[in-house]
Design a protein that fits this description.
2 domains; Rossmann fold; four-stranded antiparallel β-sheet; 25% strand; alpha/beta; six-stranded mixed β-sheet
């Protein structure tokens, strides 16, 4: 099946994020960033450690506040919405973090943690919760028995699949994937990427894929954005952009 990338989902204009420093100039983490992400598109976000990749993802979801600029979802400006108003939109935009162990509460079963999300967003009625959770786990390749387990009883790959399932509960349109394969071995890394491809094809989700792995970007992404010192240095077609990034690092004798 050919994936069709549709209309614009996200637009960011002049996004700037800085932190105050004692007795000195502010630390600028993101410097006047503007970008677009379309429906059913996977955009790779690359850059060295400290370039602002994760900060950009967090700002898009308003997990970080006090930034300047404009953020639009489906042509609705959301950066100026109150927290209460944005909460109604929030379920459409999710994030999956690098460390699945830290993302899951160790004292609750997987079932309990998924029920909490369903209840918070009032996704389905109580009589449908069991089937809804079972379906979510099945979609990410986990058996129903996993929902009665605690996080420490699951492998790293299984825990990351649970995190994906949790994100899918709200039927999001956009997911930030923040270095989600970096703690996995090569086999599980490949399986998770294939799972995300299948989910994208099935649900027409857009991804912002934050990573250092150029090979995964080449396999998984439609476009690439490369940050350097909080600014977009390269952006565009993945093949052309990856060639530019490689040349840039060779010229500057640094590594990603």
């Amino acid at each position: 099946m050919i994936e069709v990338i549709g209309l614009q989902l996200i637009r960011v204009n002049n996004l700037t994020k800085q932190y105050k420093q004692r007795g000195g100039l502010p630390l600028i983490v993101l410097d006047n960033i503007s970008l677009e992400i379309n429906n059913n598109e996977t955009v790779g976000l690359m850059g060295r450690i400290g370039s602002g990749k994760s900060t950009l993802g967090y700002c898009l979801l308003r997990l970080i506040s006090s930034f300047s600029g404009e953020i639009y979802y489906n042509n609705m400006r959301v950066d100026q919405l109150s927290q209460r108003a944005f909460r109604k939109q929030r379920k459409k935009y999710q994030i999956i973090f690098q460390d699945s162990s830290s993302s899951l509460n160790p004292i609750f079963t997987i079932d309990e943690q998924m029920r909490e999300i369903i209840s918070y967003y009032e996704i389905v009625s109580k009589v449908k919760i069991n089937n809804f959770i079972d379906s979510a786990l099945e979609e990410v390749g986990l058996g129903y028995d996993k929902k009665e387990r605690y996080p420490h009883e699951l492998s790293t790959g299984e825990k990351q699949r649970v995190c994906i399932a949790r994100a899918l509960l709200t039927e999001p349109e956009f997911i930030v994937l923040d270095e989600i394969t970096s703690s996995l071995d090569v086999i599980n890394e490949s399986r998770i990427i294939e799972l995300l491809k299948t989910i994208k094809q099935k649900r027409s989700i857009s991804y912002l894929f934050i990573t250092h792995n150029a090979g995964l970007v080449a396999d998984f992404c439609d476009r690439v954005i490369f940050l350097e010192n909080g600014k977009i240095l390269f952006e565009g077609d993945k093949t052309e952009s990856l060639d530019k990034i490689k040349s840039y690092f060779n010229t500057h004798e640094v590594s990603a």
